[in-house]
Amino acid sequence: MRLWILPVGTFCSDESVLDPQPETGHRLNISVYVYLIHLPYGLSQFDPGCSNLCRINPQGFLGQEFSQLLQTHLAADDYIIAQLATVNFTPRDIDGVINSQLHFDHGGGNSDFSQLQFVIQRSGLAAVNPEPEQCRDSASLAIITEQLHLLNGDYHFDTRLYAVSTPGHTDGHQSLVVELNERPVELTSDAVYTQLQFHPDNIGTATNPDQAQLSVARLLHLTETLGARPCSSHDPIQIKKESWRLAPGFYQ
């Protein structure tokens, strides 16, 4: 069993995008990651990141106002296809995609894996309709029914890989636990933006703050119970502080 962490670019934005109570005028480079999990029976991808359109034409893709709010820093080498090549894989090698949610920076890359099965919470798919501005890539949503595996809460893919229902940031948001030999890893996605938000009293942006608080508390409990390493979704500091092994390095 192996886990690769693929960096797929950054956005520059005011800290208020991540923290509802920031110090004013403080700008951050917000990291974006894709996670590749090699299991005995196949290769799964957790959140394929941004659409390539986000790099090629950010203003046209995100809109003038949104592209100013989140200024893209996406080089050709950051594109998910290029990052897969760093670990000698192509989209044809992937067996399925697990989506934490369908916001453009997490599910926009679905369009590059349109032939695969997608695993998402049923309520997460339904949540797209009230938030179309957050799901910019219509191709990421053009998934035929036969390719969808809709979940209703926690789900074990096997004894060492399981989805954890963590609603709050969006309805139907889910995180992922990977029980590696070295140490379990908790992929929080946007349930926890950065380590600063890994506390029920300091959650990040949420459509349902009460649910988000409960989800963060649950992830904290899992971290303690499993002795897991939590990987926050957009933390520019944690990666350096903890010396993450980015691809082509891996965890096993």
Helix content: 10-25%
The total count of helices amounts to 8
DSSP strand tally: 12
Radius of gyration, Cα only, in angstroms? 17 Å
Low-confidence stretches: none
Largest sheet: 7 strands, mixed
Taken as a percent bin, the fraction of beta residues is: 25-35%
Backbone structural class: alpha/beta
SSE sequence, one letter per element: EEEHHHEHEHEHEEEEEHEH
Instruction: Report the top-level CATH class.
Output: Alpha Beta
Give the end-to-end Cα distance, rounded to a whole number of Å. Answer: 6 Å
Corresponding CATH superfamily: Ribonuclease Z/Hydroxyacylglutathione hydrolase-like
Number of domains: 1
Mean pLDDT: 87
- Named at the architecture level, the CATH assignment is 4-Layer Sandwich
Any idea of the CATH topology? Metallo-beta-lactamase, Chain A
Structure description:
The protein has one domain: Metallo-beta-lactamase, Chain A (4-Layer Sandwich). Strand 8 and strand 9 form a beta hairpin. The longest helix is centred in the C-terminal third of the chain and has 18 residues. With 252 residues, the protein is α/β, with parallel strands linked by helices. The model has no long low-confidence stretch (mean pLDDT 87). The chain has 8 helices and 12 strands.
Any descriptors?
single chain; globular; 8 helices; five-stranded mixed sheet; 12 strands; alpha/beta; 252 residues; Metallo-beta-lactamase, Chain A
What's the helix and strand layout?
Blueprint: E1 2-14, E2 27-39, E3 42-46, H1 53-56, H2 58-62, H3 64-69, E4 71-73, H4 80-85, E5 96-98, H5 104-107, E6 117-121, H6 122-126, E7 148-151, E8 155-158, E9 161-165, E10 174-179, E11 184-189, H7 209-226, E12 229-232, H8 238-241
Parallel strand pairs: 3-5, 5-6, 6-7, 11-12
Antiparallel strand pairs: 1-2, 1-4, 2-3, 8-9, 9-10, 10-11
